[in-house]
Amino acid sequence: MVVPLPYVLGLSVALFTLGAIGVLIRRNILIILMCLEMMLNAVNLAFIGFADHFTAVDGQMFVFFVLTVAAAEVAVGLALVVAIYRRRATVYVDDLNILKW
Amino acid sequence: MIEYVWLIPVFPLVGFIINGLLGKRLSKELVGTIGATMVGLSFALTLAVFYEYVNLPVDARPVEVPVYTWIASGAFKASVAFLVDPLSLIMMLVVSGISFLIHIYSVGYMHDDPGFPRFFAYLNFFVFFMLTLVGANNFLMMFVGWEGVGLCSYLLIGYWYEKQSASDAGKKAFVVNRIGDFGFLLGIFLIFWTFNTINFREVFALAAKYPVGSGIITAITLFLFVGATGKSAQIPLYTWLPDAMEGPTPVSALIHAATMVTAGVYMVARCSALYTLAPLSMMVVAIIGALTAIFAASMGMAQFDIKRVLAYSTVSQLGYMFLACGVGAFTAGIFHLMTHAFFKALLFLGAGSISHAVAGELDMRKMGDLKKHIPITYWTFMIATLALCGIFPFAGFFSKDEILFHALVDGHLVYWGIATAAAFITAFYMFRAVFMVFYGESRVDPHVAHHIHESPRIMTIPLMLLAVGSAFAGLVGIPIIQGGHKFKEFLAPSIIYSAGHHEAHYPISFEVGLMLFSMLVAFAGIYTAYRMYLRRPELPEIIAQKYRLAYDLIYHKYYVDEIYDMAVVEPIKDTSTFLWTGVDNRVVDGAVNGTAGLVAWLSAHFRKLETGFLQNYALAVVLGVALIVGYLVGL
């Protein structure tokens, strides 16, 4: 059975919003990175929904791109988190506010 | 030799470069030798050029020696080139000859001064510029020399710059000269604007086409004369010269008596072709000259500093020279310039020798009875004084009488009256100085009294040579006797009477009568000084008491310095202070500081946006995206 497009998009929007809120309000960088992944995957979900709806493969190809980029991003992001922890012994973004006036 | 005339100023320039750059590493003997030798070489070369020039056929004169083209821009052309003619030759001979003797004297006089190399470097530099000034063939090169001697004058007046009064005097000389130079420069601009050339001979040839009394020529000559009043210390710009006596005595002798201050007279004589076209300017020159002659002489009467007496005397004698030029007797002016260079340089060097004898004292009230202690200085000083007073047969007699004669026959009875009165005062104040210094009771400080000594030979020999000049230099211009006035004959080709000129002839008895009269006036001055300062030394004080007001006026130099201070210097200072604190500090600085302040104030508020919290930035990004997306979907 085919899930109707509005349902897919509704889930995607819900996931994206949750992720965005998580990015904005959580203090732990690891959680923020996870929320970012959630936003990316919400977008992926929207791509797949549209690809199915329009019966075009372009959307599915984009999903693979996004997955690749996300993997790379996580690798770099986690490396940064490790580096920050080694230096500052914290992973809370509230403690990393020296880049200001 | 004439084609090597450019070497004449180059020798002292080489001396300046060597002494200026390496002087501190060389011994004093070497520095002095280099300084004097370079000027001596100039003098020798000038003599050689002079000798060759007088042997040239008349139609080959005058000679222009181009060195190179300095500026060529459109119609404007200024070259470094020398004009060899009787006038420039006489000036070069006077400048290099007197400078040579003064350099030798300075080796002795400045011997214990720590700045010895600096002194000789400046002195050489001065001679370089002075020879450039008198050798130039165009107005611009003359102006270069004109400014250069002004610079050296400033450097040498303020030579002892640790002394406040000396550095102030240097500044004053420089600033007052600037006023004159400004006029001179305007004159040169006008000349180029009118004639399209600045070469002397071309200008004078073109000027002949203008009618007598033409406005533009009058303007040019008046502007040039403003320059002359500054450089030659005439009313109203004479105030710097008495103060210039703060410099070392050889400097006073060289720059402020014999050479630089005569540059104005030289310039007026050089421009005789222009001045004779402007009767109004001639009258101004004569009036200023006559007024300066009597005015400065009267101030010399009440001075006690021997160098200041001589300074006022110089101003007064320069007035005579301008008076001569003003009545059209340019040769008489230059003749007096030449004889004056000898005896005034001698008087100053003599004053230096006197102060050397009494431990640097210059106040005549602390001298007296020095005659037997320093006989050479006394005799040479006496010869120079007699020459200055115009006593036959010393040099000043011939030149001064010629001026008096021309003031009467070419000028006006008033000029002659003023000049004769000034001659009386001159004789009076010079013998006042002689009596106060060499005769009467010794008033020397007892600590100094038993150290009084004659100067070393290196100083007395130049004195004696100058004394020979002061005694005999006048013989080149013997009046009355036919063909006796060699000086005038030689100089005549350089003096151009554009408006026509006729040499008036008067009976010999008239000329002789005038001479006897002026001698009588001089003797009257001497006798008055004798009565007041030798026979009854208490008399001056009594007279001063009796005519308190007049005496105070003269003693304080008519308060001219004070008036200038009040009328010119203070208003300029006030305006400058206003421009500084009001305009510069508030308006200019205010605009700059205000801009910075505004930016700082805005930043103080805007920078609060940069919190450093990652999530604030993220929120801004999200809101931005929301806005853009909202706009795109047309919400």
Automatic annotation (TrEMBL), chain A:
Membrane topology, from the record: Multi-pass membrane protein
Alphabetic keyword roster: Cell inner membrane, Cell membrane, Membrane, NAD, Oxidoreductase, Quinone, Translocase, Transmembrane, Transmembrane helix, Transport, Ubiquinone
UniProt subcellular location: Cell membrane; Membrane
UniProt keyword Ribosomal protein, yes or no: no
NCBIfam families from the UniProt entry: PRK05715.1-2, PRK05715.1-3, PRK05715.1-5
Protein family according to the UniProt entry: Belongs to the complex I subunit 4L family.
Protein name in UniProt: NADH-quinone oxidoreductase subunit K
From TrEMBL, chain B:
GO biological process terms, semicolon-separated: ATP synthesis coupled electron transport; electron transport coupled proton transport
NADH-Ubiquinone oxidoreductase (complex I) chain 5 N-terminal domain: residues covered: 70-120
Entry membrane topology: Multi-pass membrane protein
Record keywords: Membrane, Transmembrane, Transmembrane helix
Subcellular location per the Swiss-Prot or TrEMBL entry: Endomembrane system; Membrane
A GO cellular component entry from the record: endomembrane system
Keyword Metal-binding attributed: no
TM stretches of this protein: 6-23, 30-51, 87-107, 119-137, 143-161, 182-200, 212-230, 275-297, 309-335, 376-398, 413-439, 460-481, 512-530, 617-634
GO molecular function: NADH dehydrogenase (ubiquinone) activity; NADH dehydrogenase activity; quinone binding
Record-linked InterPro entries: NADHpl_OxRdtase_5_subgr, ND/Mrp_TM, NU5C-like, Proton_antipo_N
Domain NADH:quinone oxidoreductase/Mrp antiporter transmembrane stretches: 136-426
Chief location: membrane
Protein name per Swiss-Prot or TrEMBL: NADH-quinone oxidoreductase subunit L
Organism listed in the record: Desulfobacca acetoxidans
